[in-house]
Amino acid sequence: MKKIILIRHAKSAWDQPSLADHDRPLAERGLLAAPKMGKRLSKMGINPDRIISSTAERAKSTAQLIAKELKSPKNTIWLERDLYHASAQTMISILKSLPESIQTVILVGHNPGMNDFVDRLGGKIGNLPTAGIFAVKSSAQWKDFDLKQVDFWFFDFPKNRN
């Protein structure tokens, strides 16, 4: 069973207007939310084979903070420039290119692509908030990944009290 965990990057800082969008760091709220969500994933026993992150600083930092809480080896994180403001179709292409040895993958990216992908996966959540997580399972091989062959697994976000 393949497990796909989508994570929108944690809250980014806007206090340095001269920085390029790609270089914006996490805000203090994001620096707190990412490890919090990593701890929640750890409590669920999630152990990703690969964490694929956008190369944007805020996504990369989110991936690193979550990986630290999951005690994932550093080589688990792969940076993928195509995830920077990726469309849902780009994310699907990334999933279809994964080797079959990977069972659990985390994608760390950005809106609006993340919201679009969640919608296509059948998620009726309206908006994936910063540091929000939407996860599905699929019995298909990666090369055959199909939006119609997924089952909802869970949805979580920093302000969730459940």
TrEMBL record:
Substrate binds at R58. It holds the Pfam family His_Phos_1. InterPro entries: His_Pase_superF_clade-1, His_PPase_superfam. It comes from the Bacteria. Gene3D superfamilies: Phosphoglycerate mutase-like. CDD domains: HP_PGM_like. PANTHER family: OS09G0287300 PROTEIN. This is Phosphohistidine phosphatase.
